[in-house]
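Exercise 7b. Backbone tokens:
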């Protein structure tokens, strides 16, 4: 009588790539998104390094490459962008025009990335900084709230996008009707000054400087949209992961 030979059983590798991605997908997304959010800030650092005496040209080449890549995600208008390594964090349109060209054409203005005197701009506008950074913050915060935070209802998601649509839309209309950047009703905000009986300093109404109405609206609307996107998508992904694992 022959004894049957037992066939070896195949055990799935619990440490396989698919398993790692499934278990740690949020951490992976956070790391990738963190890199995406960090690169615009690296651009002025590279430009600063390239401006040093005797520096190799590849520093500025790398910095300019980042500006070019991120130009597809943002208008990069310098008067609505943060600057590093200069005396000011933001500059007025008049200061940009004096250092670059006397123009209100956004296509020309966006090409100004800075200089050794003023510093170098971040490769995103202030609105994009608040939008994408708030998404990263929301992802990190969600690690403590996972399984307890239900997906954001679609109606609430759409509602949180309205401020961005209104603020960004009125800026676009203002630039078009005004004949260029700095010439429209969203640059002077005379309508707001009239509504509030000029209760705030003129610097609050006009321009895009830190602390101005325009800057504040871009900050708030960016944060609202960023958190709304994360609140909608991440709980849905968690639910999908739980369902697919059953």
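Sequence design result:
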């Amino acid at each position: 009588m022959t004894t049957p030979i037992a066939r070896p059983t195949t055990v799935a590798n619990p440490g396989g790539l698919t398993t790692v991605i499934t278990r740690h997908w949020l951490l992976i997304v956070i790391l990738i998104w963190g890199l995406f959010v960090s690169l615009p800030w690296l651009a002025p650092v590279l430009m600063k390094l390239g401006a040093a005496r005797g520096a190799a040209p590849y520093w500025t080449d790398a910095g300019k490459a980042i500006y070019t890549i991120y130009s597809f995600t943002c208008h990069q208008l310098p008067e609505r962008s943060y600057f590093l390594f200069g005396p000011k964090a933001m500059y007025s349109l008049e200061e940009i025009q004096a250092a670059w060209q006397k123009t209100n054409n956004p296509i020309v203005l966006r090409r100004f990335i800075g200089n050794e005197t003023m510093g170098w701009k971040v490769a995103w506008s202030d609105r994009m900084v608040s939008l994408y950074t708030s998404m990263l913050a929301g992802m990190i915060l969600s690690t403590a709230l996972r399984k307890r935070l239900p997906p954001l209802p679609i109606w609430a998601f759409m509602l949180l996008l309205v401020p961005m649509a209104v603020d960004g839309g009125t800026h676009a209309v203002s630039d078009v009707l005004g004949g260029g950047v700095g010439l429209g009703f969203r640059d002077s905000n005379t309508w707001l000054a009239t509504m509030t009986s000029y209760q705030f300093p003129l610097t609050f109404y006009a321009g895009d400087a830190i602390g101005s109405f325009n800057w504040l609206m871009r900050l708030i609307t960016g944060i609202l949209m960023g958190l709304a996107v994360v609140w909608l998508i991440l709980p849905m992904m968690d639910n999908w992961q739980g369902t697919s694992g059953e």
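Instructor comment: The chain has one domain: 20-238. The radius of gyration is 24 Å.
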